[in-house]
Amino acid sequence: MKYAAQKLGLFVLTLWAAVTLNFILPRLMPGSPTDAAIAKLSQNGPVSDATRAAIEAQLGVPSGNVLQQYVSYLGQVVRLDFGTSYTFFPETVGHLVGQALPFTLILVGVCTIIAFVLGTLIGVAAAWKRGTWLDSLPTLSGSFMSTFPYFWTALLLLFFLGYVLHWFPTTGAYGATTTPGFTPAFIGDALQHAVLPAITILLTSLGGWILGMRNAMISTLGDDYVTFAEANGLKGRTVAVRYAARNAILPNLTGFGLALGGVVGGSILVEQVFGYPGIGYLLFNAVIGQDYPLMQALFLMITVSVLVANFLVDILYGVLDPRTRR
User: Fold this and answer.
1) Where is the ABC transmembrane type-1 domain (predicted)?
2) Which 3 state secondary structure label does DSSP give 258?
3) CATH class of this structure's domain 94-325
4) Main-chain phi, psi angles of 92, to 5 degrees
5) Which of 16, 30, 134, 203 is deepest in the core (most CB within 10 A)?
6) Three-state DSSP class for residue 241
């Protein structure tokens, strides 16, 4: 209980620091949303102070000094009210995030979980059968695929499977003629559009999980308790899973917590290449448009998700390895 309370206190302190940084960082960027809007209007000459004030009022630019803005921002965070988007005016930030989040969670979230489970299992098998083809084939292929960046793999798949063979759609999350909803037609169309981004994420991330689990497992297999379990005549599967893999999975579990927390942020490069309307695509447009409310909401959501994932991993560490509770 004391262990969990310590982790909870650290979580709250880190959350406050993240919220404060989330308020400061966008304001350190050069320019402002008002300047970007005025740049579009200044083709016919400079705008007046009254026009500038009207644009600021329309965009909902916060007024007052920095301290007043910070207090107001903390109140908005508590109420989960992030205002109106500057880039997609007059859409609210909550509405935009609500539209993009399901696509990112389904695509990046499911792919991350599948890659972690497959990579961990393959890594366990490769370490247990080290020196055989079952070890060489996945490690070499995983290392080869991990060397390619996300966008390069995405462009290759897009060109060959999309434009050359016409097997899959090349952009968007669903067709222009498809009406969103929980219908078989929409679900089938959405799955077809998600195939290429999903393959990209799986191919580029699977190798890391395989190599990480294999290396940790090989180190664990040399420990005395594994040798003792084998000397007692336990089955190989029991020794591999219940003794070696349980301890070797801890480093991979830390990486999985970070990756799972980062799922909310989406995959900016993959979503940008395929025009997939997820959180990563939305974040890219927010940064380009200097959309403070949207950026702050997305950064805060990503930060909180990573902190929550790390907190859960810390608690799980205490369950899997009691030594961490000391």
Assistant:
1) 101-313
2) helix
3) mainly alpha
4) -80, 155
5) 203
6) helix
Give the single-character DSSP code of 262. Answer: G
Name which of 253, 252, 163, 146 is nearest 203 in CA terms.
146
CA atoms within 13 A on the CB side of 246: 14
Contacts of 242 (CB under 8 A, 6+ apart): none
- Three-state DSSP at 92 gives strand
d(CA 278, CA 111): 14
Nearest CA among 21, 25, 3, 1 for reference residue 13:
21
- Residue spans of the domains in the chain: they are 2-79, 94-325
Q: CB–CB of 211/139 below 8 Å?
A: yes
The DSSP call for residue 297 is H
Per-residue DSSP letter, 44: G
Give pLDDT tens digits along the chain (326 positions): 676 677 777 777 887 887 788 777 766 766 666 666 666 555 555 666 666 666 666 655 666 677 777 877 777 777 777 777 777 777 788 888 888 888 888 877 788 888 888 888 888 888 877 778 777 788 888 778 777 777 778 888 888 888 888 888 877 777 767 777 777 777 787 788 888 888 888 888 887 888 888 877 777 776 777 776 767 776 766 777 676 777 777 777 777 777 776 666 556 777 777 877 878 788 887 877 777 778 878 888 888 887 777 777 777 776 666 666 66
Q: Can you name the residues that pair with 84 across neighbouring β-strands?
A: 92
CA 131 vs CA 126, 135, 242, 249, 310: distances in Å: 8, 6, 22, 21, 35
Place of tokens 């919220």: 19
Cβ 264 vs Cβ 305: under 8 Å:
yes
**Which of these, 219, 200, 323, lies nearest to 267 by C-alpha position?**
200
